[in-house]
Amino acid sequence: MKPIPFSVFALLGPFLILCISGSLLAGKEWTTKISTDEGSHVFGGPLLDEEKPWVGKWEGTNENDDTWRIFRRPNHVYTIEIYWKEEGKVTSFYGHGLWAVKDGKFFYCDVLDEQMDILEGWPVEVEGMIPHEDYLLGIEKIKSVGKDKIVTSAEDSGDSLEKKVESFQKGWIITYDKPDPIKEKQLFDRIVLARIRNNSDMVAFLSDPAYPAPHKLAGYWRISSDDPDDSVETYEVLRRADGTHTTISGDYGGKGLFSHSLWSIRNGRYYEAEFISADKVVSFEEGFLFWEKVVRVGDNALVTQWVDPERKTLLIFPLIVTVTDQRIKEFKSKALAEEAKKKSFSLKVLMQRIKESEKAK
Q: Which pLDDT does position 37 carry in this prediction?
């Protein structure tokens, strides 16, 4: 497998055209299409018979003396550690991407770079997300596939030879040698999040039928946090069983301004994104889909945490903010209490508003 260093992405980005389509609907497996100057392919879906021999842990090298360790999973997500020489210096890449095999060709594309921070300015919070415009699709011809050996060929790197291993004995990738079920699911979630391109994609992720909103969390809630910089000490939320919630902050005596969001709990994380603010649909560019670690879920309390690496405690440790949702019997906000009685908002209403907004563009 020819490694694709991220430094190359920046050079090729202007010539790349990215096309994404995805589905998290019931009964359909998630897929995504990547199209670049190098070609295109739809990743995801069910594992094909011709792909089964490729699953597992492998160590490889090519005629350029590049070396790598790769773990290919049945869900078409791979984890890779690769090394190559650039101007006489050894360079490395640690990350994750999507792979596929079809019609005698091996397709792959890096999606997450573990040496990168969260992409600033992007509306979806994803650790290590490679910018869409910097994607590079790798396509190699398959020369032979055996039980323990795979040989492929590419114009710029010649033949690549991979040998199957029982386990990884060294390197960064050793942390994935014995997969943790929750971490594996969180990695897949990161891949899906990194593919989001619009509000409809956001809604698809947050309303995925595989992760229905816990009905016990529907109702009236008051939310507070121990964030020392939070100017709003508490705010109230009307949370619905369909995954929507309505918020009004600060002014309990007046009318206030409503915001409508979607929330989801999946694989130990709480996800949320606002879609309507002051009765206007928030554009994808102005929105933000974020996540927090779930600490506790109860009938009357939901506790989550998020880490701010920019702010420190005890000089060196990043600040950990705890957010507490407490169930209440009634709202202090008259406007929110009236909204709860009306029952005028729902997931169906939200999706219709978003659809109309996207059509108007």
A: 82
**E-strand spans in 241-288?**
244-249, 259-266, 269-277, 280-281
The CA distance from 358 to 124, in Å, is 18
- The number of C-alpha atoms within 13 Å of 254 and in the hemisphere containing its C-beta is 6
Distances (CA, A) of 133 to 34, 81, 99: 11, 22, 19
Averaged pLDDT score across all residues of the chain: 88
Tokens of 20: 């994404």
Residue 250: pLDDT band by 50, 70, 90 thresholds? low
Query: Are 130 and 27 within 8 A, CB to CB?
Result: no
**Is residue 298 within 8 Å of residue 326, measured between CB atoms?**
no
Question: Cα torsion for 189, 7, 119, 242, to the nearest 10°?
Answer: -20
Distances (CA, A) of 190 to 79, 111, 130, 326: 13, 9, 11, 29
* pLDDT tens by residue, 91-129: 999 999 999 999 999 999 999 999 998 998 999 999 999
Element (H, E) at 41: strand 39-44
